[in-house]
Amino acid sequence: MECSFPLTVADVLRRKYFERAVVAAGKGGLSRIVKWVHVVEVTKISNLLRGKELILSTGVGWREDASLFLSLLRQLIECDASGLCIELGTYASSIPDEALKLADQHDFPIVFFLEEVPFVEITHDIHTHLINQQYQMISQLESYSQELNKKLLTVHDHREILTCLHDCLGHHVAFKMQGGDVEYIPCRPRQKREASICSGNSGWPVDAVVKPISLFGAEYAELALLPDGRDVNEFDLLILDRTATALAQHLLRNLYAEEKRRTEENEWLKGWLEGEYSDQEISSFLLDHHPSFDSRRGVVWVCKVERAHQKGNFDLTYFKLLCRSLFEQRGFFVFSVEIGRQLAFIALDWRGESTWKKRVEDGIESIKASDFVRTRLPSLSIGVGTFVNSLSAMNQSYRAALEALKIRNRLKDQTVSPFYEDLHLYRMIMVLDKYSNLRETACQYLGPIIEYDRKYNGKLLETLKVYLQCNGSKQETAKRLFIVRQTLYHRIEKLESFLGPDFMAPDKRLAIELMIKAYDCLMDADEISYRHRNVQRWAD
């Protein structure tokens, strides 16, 4: 289905009323595209043109004034007009040699009508042809789209879609997935392929028209037309765009099927995370299922998936596919494991340990910023384990990721790092809480302050936190709290009445800061206030 779009000056010269027309200059520009026809009899025209117009004129605007004609000609060239057709005899009998040289220099066609011609009939004929051509283009585009949609139901290899594009346009077609080799339809000899790769940027020939194919907001592949016998035109670009969309759908379907297959590996992967297999057993599994991959280091990260709070028809497979795609772009080979209400990702690193944390952080930010997560999992919480250098140690990273997720789910401040290795004090608090009565200790320190805030809206706890963060600087504390110094002095006096005048002494201050972290991690204000009131009643 090769198409004769668009209309050129050479095509126009073969139409009715141009039998006795003569090309006087600019024969090198007969391939210029014609998108419309204008009759022009004025000499100031640049603000009226949009490009690709064929101009008809009797010369009445300049008559025999060579300077006016040269001015008009320069305007037409600058505006990218298609050409100029002049009816000689009535108002203009000749064209200056300087103008003909200028036209030849810019390959701008100047055509002479040697007898009177009906401009109305010419414009009607060409405009009718252009409109019919547009209708034909839309019709062929629709037919091609329907053909692609039918193919998508049965196609198994993306090369079938590439062949469809080649058959439609006649151009050579090239396709390349990120990290893969270029595929050509039809196949090109090795020498020609090597010459093409060397002739342009990014491995494409200089005349190639390249269309990126994006999945999950990132470039996944590239589709290119390599002109063969003619230039790439507007119709070609529309067909290329439709084909790229079809390829994206096909690739996404294949990725989805691959992710479904990976789900079947889920039980074995659970055993991996539980530490049931040795390095040799894990390596054997990877060799059987993914023979091209070779890595012994990585990290596990987990997230909690609350199905009851999902918006709409949530597809966990799509979410896993999104995560895998974004992490693979950052140098990780990813396995996903469903364990109860949690989803764990084993991310094997193939780049380098020095940059793993930054790449994981970027991947998590991209996941949270995606439309899919923002609309369906707006409160997604993630915990990242430790980076390990052996396959059998992934269960250690998994346990650390669970601990990080547990800590983050209990914190009010979700800006805290999701990385286990960054949660220093919070990890200590969880251990202390497990082996001691940490809640009662926190109540002894903070109970009176929280009870006072509850009764009088005193904002003492907030003041205490900021005062400690500012290392006891009253000026900086008042500035960050947006209060006057006198108000701050009053609050500090109240804090001293509850904590003692020495609460900024190093040891006591350290204990108070630890209790504040424990309060953020373990309890809420109602619990600690309740405990404080019970302690008071017992004391009374």
TrEMBL record:
<dbReference type="InterPro" id="IPR042070">
    <property type="entry name" value="PucR_C-HTH_sf"/>
</dbReference>
<feature type="domain" description="PucR C-terminal helix-turn-helix">
    <location>
        <begin position="460"/>
        <end position="518"/>
    </location>
</feature>
<dbReference type="Pfam" id="PF07905">
    <property type="entry name" value="PucR"/>
</dbReference>
<dbReference type="InterPro" id="IPR051448">
    <property type="entry name" value="CdaR-like_regulators"/>
</dbReference>
<dbReference type="Pfam" id="PF13556">
    <property type="entry name" value="HTH_30"/>
</dbReference>
<dbReference type="InterPro" id="IPR025736">
    <property type="entry name" value="PucR_C-HTH_dom"/>
</dbReference>
<protein>
    <submittedName>
        <fullName>PucR family transcriptional regulator ligand-binding domain-containing protein</fullName>
    </submittedName>
</protein>
<dbReference type="InterPro" id="IPR012914">
    <property type="entry name" value="PucR_dom"/>
</dbReference>
<feature type="domain" description="Purine catabolism PurC-like">
    <location>
        <begin position="11"/>
        <end position="130"/>
    </location>
</feature>
